[in-house]
From TrEMBL:
Name of the protein: Phosphate transport system permease protein PstA
ABC transmembrane type-1 domain location: 61-266
Membrane-topology descriptor: Multi-pass membrane protein
One Gene Ontology term from the biological process aspect of the record: phosphate ion transmembrane transport
Amino acid sequence: MRYIKGEAFKYLCMAATVIALMLLALLMWDAWDKGAGWLSLKFLNSFPSRFPEQAGIKSALWGSIWLMILTAIISIPLGVGAAIYLEEYARRTWLTRIIEINISNLAGVPSIVYGILGLALFVRGLMLGRSLLAGALTMALLILPIIIISSQEAIRAVPKSIREASYALGSTKWQTVRHHVLPAALPGILTGNILSLSRAMGEAAPLIMIGALTFIAFTPAGPFDPFTALPIQIFNWASRPKAEFQFLAAAGILVLLALLLAMNAAAIIIRNKYQRYIKW
Protein backbone atom coordinates (compact mmCIF):
# COMPACT_ATOMS: atom_id res chain seq x y z
CA MET A 1 0.00 0.00 0.00
CA ARG A 2 2.82 2.39 0.87
CA TYR A 3 4.51 1.58 -2.46
CA ILE A 4 1.28 2.34 -4.35
CA LYS A 5 0.91 5.69 -2.60
CA GLY A 6 4.52 6.53 -3.41
CA GLU A 7 4.00 5.71 -7.09
CA ALA A 8 0.80 7.79 -7.20
CA PHE A 9 2.60 10.75 -5.64
CA LYS A 10 5.43 10.41 -8.15
CA TYR A 11 3.05 10.43 -11.12
CA LEU A 12 1.14 13.36 -9.61
CA CYS A 13 4.38 15.35 -9.37
CA MET A 14 5.26 14.43 -12.95
CA ALA A 15 1.83 15.57 -14.18
CA ALA A 16 2.14 18.86 -12.28
CA THR A 17 5.58 19.42 -13.79
CA VAL A 18 4.31 18.75 -17.32
CA ILE A 19 1.38 21.13 -16.84
CA ALA A 20 3.65 23.84 -15.46
CA LEU A 21 6.04 23.45 -18.41
CA MET A 22 3.16 23.63 -20.87
CA LEU A 23 1.82 26.83 -19.27
CA LEU A 24 5.31 28.34 -19.31
CA ALA A 25 5.71 27.41 -22.97
CA LEU A 26 2.37 29.04 -23.81
CA LEU A 27 3.33 32.23 -21.99
CA MET A 28 6.69 32.38 -23.73
CA TRP A 29 5.07 31.75 -27.11
CA ASP A 30 2.56 34.55 -26.44
CA ALA A 31 5.40 36.94 -25.55
CA TRP A 32 7.35 35.89 -28.65
CA ASP A 33 4.31 36.21 -30.92
CA LYS A 34 3.57 39.74 -29.72
CA GLY A 35 7.06 41.10 -29.14
CA ALA A 36 9.41 39.47 -31.65
CA GLY A 37 8.44 41.90 -34.39
CA TRP A 38 9.41 44.87 -32.22
CA LEU A 39 12.91 43.60 -31.39
CA SER A 40 15.61 45.55 -33.21
CA LEU A 41 18.80 47.51 -32.58
CA LYS A 42 16.68 50.67 -32.58
CA PHE A 43 14.54 49.21 -29.80
CA LEU A 44 17.64 48.43 -27.72
CA ASN A 45 19.27 51.81 -28.39
CA SER A 46 16.27 54.14 -27.99
CA PHE A 47 14.87 55.84 -24.90
CA PRO A 48 11.23 55.48 -23.80
CA SER A 49 8.73 57.60 -25.69
CA ARG A 50 5.02 58.28 -25.73
CA PHE A 51 5.07 57.20 -29.37
CA PRO A 52 5.30 53.38 -29.51
CA GLU A 53 7.22 53.27 -32.80
CA GLN A 54 9.97 55.46 -31.27
CA ALA A 55 10.13 53.83 -27.81
CA GLY A 56 13.01 51.69 -26.61
CA ILE A 57 14.60 50.23 -23.49
CA LYS A 58 18.05 51.82 -23.49
CA SER A 59 17.67 53.57 -20.12
CA ALA A 60 16.00 50.51 -18.53
CA LEU A 61 18.63 48.12 -19.91
CA TRP A 62 21.55 50.20 -18.67
CA GLY A 63 19.76 50.77 -15.36
CA SER A 64 19.41 47.02 -14.86
CA ILE A 65 23.09 46.46 -15.70
CA TRP A 66 24.17 49.19 -13.27
CA LEU A 67 21.83 47.78 -10.62
CA MET A 68 23.17 44.23 -10.93
CA ILE A 69 26.80 45.36 -10.80
CA LEU A 70 26.27 47.40 -7.64
CA THR A 71 24.14 44.67 -6.07
CA ALA A 72 26.85 42.08 -6.74
CA ILE A 73 29.57 44.33 -5.29
CA ILE A 74 27.56 44.80 -2.10
CA SER A 75 25.96 41.40 -1.56
CA ILE A 76 28.52 38.81 -2.69
CA PRO A 77 31.38 39.73 -0.29
CA LEU A 78 28.96 40.05 2.64
CA GLY A 79 27.08 36.84 1.82
CA VAL A 80 30.13 34.66 1.18
CA GLY A 81 31.94 36.13 4.20
CA ALA A 82 28.96 35.39 6.45
CA ALA A 83 28.76 31.83 5.10
CA ILE A 84 32.47 31.26 5.74
CA TYR A 85 32.16 32.53 9.29
CA LEU A 86 29.05 30.48 10.10
CA GLU A 87 30.47 27.25 8.64
CA GLU A 88 34.15 27.45 9.54
CA TYR A 89 34.56 29.74 12.54
CA ALA A 90 31.31 30.09 14.51
CA ARG A 91 30.76 27.72 17.41
CA ARG A 92 27.67 25.51 17.32
CA THR A 93 25.69 27.29 20.04
CA TRP A 94 22.03 28.18 20.44
CA LEU A 95 22.77 31.69 19.16
CA THR A 96 24.30 30.33 15.95
CA ARG A 97 21.29 28.09 15.40
CA ILE A 98 18.91 31.03 15.90
CA ILE A 99 20.88 33.12 13.40
CA GLU A 100 20.78 30.35 10.78
CA ILE A 101 17.04 29.81 11.31
CA ASN A 102 16.41 33.53 10.89
CA ILE A 103 18.50 33.62 7.70
CA SER A 104 16.42 30.75 6.30
CA ASN A 105 13.22 32.58 7.22
CA LEU A 106 14.45 35.80 5.60
CA ALA A 107 14.99 33.91 2.33
CA GLY A 108 11.22 33.31 2.19
CA VAL A 109 10.08 36.85 3.00
CA PRO A 110 8.10 38.46 0.11
CA SER A 111 10.12 40.93 -1.91
CA ILE A 112 7.66 43.76 -1.26
CA VAL A 113 8.69 43.68 2.42
CA TYR A 114 12.29 44.37 1.41
CA GLY A 115 10.99 47.24 -0.71
CA ILE A 116 9.30 48.77 2.33
CA LEU A 117 12.49 48.29 4.36
CA GLY A 118 14.57 49.90 1.60
CA LEU A 119 12.18 52.85 1.42
CA ALA A 120 12.37 53.45 5.18
CA LEU A 121 16.07 52.73 5.67
CA PHE A 122 17.91 53.80 2.52
CA VAL A 123 15.64 56.27 0.70
CA ARG A 124 14.44 58.19 3.77
CA GLY A 125 16.71 57.14 6.64
CA LEU A 126 20.06 57.52 4.87
CA MET A 127 18.69 60.20 2.51
CA LEU A 128 19.84 58.39 -0.62
CA GLY A 129 16.68 59.27 -2.52
CA ARG A 130 15.60 57.42 -5.66
CA SER A 131 19.15 56.56 -6.58
CA LEU A 132 20.85 53.49 -7.97
CA LEU A 133 22.65 53.00 -4.67
CA ALA A 134 19.36 52.84 -2.75
CA GLY A 135 18.03 50.28 -5.24
CA ALA A 136 21.23 48.21 -5.09
CA LEU A 137 21.22 48.18 -1.27
CA THR A 138 17.58 47.09 -1.27
CA MET A 139 18.27 44.31 -3.77
CA ALA A 140 21.32 43.26 -1.77
CA LEU A 141 19.11 42.79 1.29
CA LEU A 142 16.71 40.75 -0.84
CA ILE A 143 19.26 38.23 -2.11
CA LEU A 144 21.68 38.21 0.83
CA PRO A 145 19.93 35.33 2.67
CA ILE A 146 19.91 33.25 -0.53
CA ILE A 147 23.62 33.89 -1.11
CA ILE A 148 24.44 32.94 2.48
CA ILE A 149 22.42 29.71 2.36
CA SER A 150 23.75 28.58 -1.03
CA SER A 151 27.34 29.40 -0.02
CA GLN A 152 26.92 27.52 3.25
CA GLU A 153 25.68 24.45 1.40
CA ALA A 154 28.63 24.60 -1.00
CA ILE A 155 31.15 24.93 1.85
CA ARG A 156 29.42 22.20 3.85
CA ALA A 157 29.71 19.83 0.88
CA VAL A 158 33.52 19.97 0.96
CA PRO A 159 34.73 16.71 2.60
CA LYS A 160 36.26 16.99 6.06
CA SER A 161 39.21 14.93 4.86
CA ILE A 162 40.45 17.95 2.86
CA ARG A 163 40.49 20.08 6.00
CA GLU A 164 42.13 17.36 8.09
CA ALA A 165 44.84 16.79 5.47
CA SER A 166 45.58 20.51 5.41
CA TYR A 167 45.80 20.70 9.20
CA ALA A 168 48.06 17.65 9.23
CA LEU A 169 50.53 19.51 6.99
CA GLY A 170 50.65 22.43 9.42
CA SER A 171 48.27 24.87 7.72
CA THR A 172 46.38 27.40 9.78
CA LYS A 173 42.60 27.74 9.80
CA TRP A 174 42.62 30.62 7.32
CA GLN A 175 45.14 28.93 5.03
CA THR A 176 42.96 25.83 4.95
CA VAL A 177 39.83 27.85 4.16
CA ARG A 178 41.53 30.04 1.57
CA HIS A 179 43.59 27.48 -0.32
CA HIS A 180 41.50 24.32 0.00
CA VAL A 181 37.91 24.82 1.16
CA LEU A 182 37.01 27.86 -0.95
CA PRO A 183 38.46 26.51 -4.23
CA ALA A 184 36.57 23.26 -3.73
CA ALA A 185 33.32 25.10 -2.90
CA LEU A 186 33.74 27.72 -5.62
CA PRO A 187 31.45 26.09 -8.26
CA GLY A 188 28.52 25.95 -5.84
CA ILE A 189 29.19 29.44 -4.48
CA LEU A 190 29.34 31.01 -7.94
CA THR A 191 26.24 29.16 -9.09
CA GLY A 192 24.25 30.33 -6.07
CA ASN A 193 25.44 33.91 -6.46
CA ILE A 194 24.55 34.12 -10.14
CA LEU A 195 21.11 32.58 -9.60
CA SER A 196 20.50 35.05 -6.75
CA LEU A 197 21.41 37.96 -9.02
CA SER A 198 19.06 36.52 -11.65
CA ARG A 199 16.23 36.70 -9.14
CA ALA A 200 17.10 40.30 -8.29
CA MET A 201 17.11 41.26 -11.97
CA GLY A 202 13.53 40.10 -12.40
CA GLU A 203 12.11 41.80 -9.30
CA ALA A 204 9.86 44.84 -9.74
CA ALA A 205 8.03 45.21 -6.41
CA PRO A 206 11.01 46.46 -4.31
CA LEU A 207 11.97 48.97 -7.01
CA ILE A 208 8.42 50.28 -7.20
CA MET A 209 8.37 50.72 -3.42
CA ILE A 210 11.59 52.72 -3.30
CA GLY A 211 10.30 54.98 -6.08
CA ALA A 212 12.29 53.94 -9.15
CA LEU A 213 11.23 56.14 -12.05
CA THR A 214 9.17 54.82 -14.94
CA PHE A 215 10.26 57.33 -17.60
CA ILE A 216 13.93 58.30 -17.98
CA ALA A 217 15.46 59.70 -21.15
CA PHE A 218 19.07 59.24 -20.07
CA THR A 219 21.39 56.50 -18.83
CA PRO A 220 22.80 56.59 -15.28
CA ALA A 221 26.32 57.95 -14.95
CA GLY A 222 26.93 57.08 -11.30
CA PRO A 223 25.49 55.31 -8.25
CA PHE A 224 23.64 58.42 -7.03
CA ASP A 225 21.71 59.03 -10.27
CA PRO A 226 18.00 58.27 -10.72
CA PHE A 227 17.31 55.07 -12.60
CA THR A 228 14.77 52.70 -14.02
CA ALA A 229 15.02 48.97 -14.72
CA LEU A 230 13.61 46.46 -17.17
CA PRO A 231 10.83 45.13 -14.86
CA ILE A 232 9.72 48.72 -14.15
CA GLN A 233 9.66 49.63 -17.84
CA ILE A 234 7.75 46.45 -18.71
CA PHE A 235 5.23 47.19 -15.95
CA ASN A 236 4.81 50.73 -17.24
CA TRP A 237 4.14 49.61 -20.82
CA ALA A 238 1.83 46.76 -19.78
CA SER A 239 -0.34 49.17 -17.75
CA ARG A 240 -1.06 51.39 -20.77
CA PRO A 241 -4.27 50.79 -22.74
CA LYS A 242 -2.81 51.28 -26.21
CA ALA A 243 -2.19 47.94 -27.95
CA GLU A 244 1.24 48.91 -29.31
CA PHE A 245 2.56 49.36 -25.78
CA GLN A 246 1.46 45.82 -24.96
CA PHE A 247 3.67 44.64 -27.82
CA LEU A 248 6.54 46.75 -26.47
CA ALA A 249 6.03 45.12 -23.06
CA ALA A 250 6.26 41.69 -24.71
CA ALA A 251 9.49 42.72 -26.45
CA GLY A 252 10.87 43.92 -23.11
CA ILE A 253 9.94 40.57 -21.57
CA LEU A 254 11.93 38.79 -24.29
CA VAL A 255 14.99 40.96 -23.58
CA LEU A 256 14.67 40.29 -19.84
CA LEU A 257 14.30 36.55 -20.44
CA ALA A 258 17.37 36.59 -22.67
CA LEU A 259 19.42 38.24 -19.91
CA LEU A 260 18.13 35.79 -17.29
CA LEU A 261 18.85 32.79 -19.51
CA ALA A 262 22.33 34.15 -20.21
CA MET A 263 23.03 34.48 -16.47
CA ASN A 264 21.72 30.98 -15.77
CA ALA A 265 23.79 29.57 -18.63
CA ALA A 266 26.84 31.34 -17.22
CA ALA A 267 26.18 29.70 -13.85
CA ILE A 268 26.06 26.25 -15.48
CA ILE A 269 29.21 26.86 -17.54
CA ILE A 270 31.17 28.17 -14.54
CA ARG A 271 30.07 25.24 -12.40
CA ASN A 272 31.02 22.66 -15.02
CA LYS A 273 34.33 24.38 -15.77
CA TYR A 274 35.53 24.41 -12.18
CA GLN A 275 34.23 20.93 -11.39
CA ARG A 276 36.59 19.49 -14.02
CA TYR A 277 39.59 20.49 -11.90
CA ILE A 278 38.20 19.37 -8.54
CA LYS A 279 38.69 15.69 -7.79
CA TRP A 280 37.64 14.50 -4.37
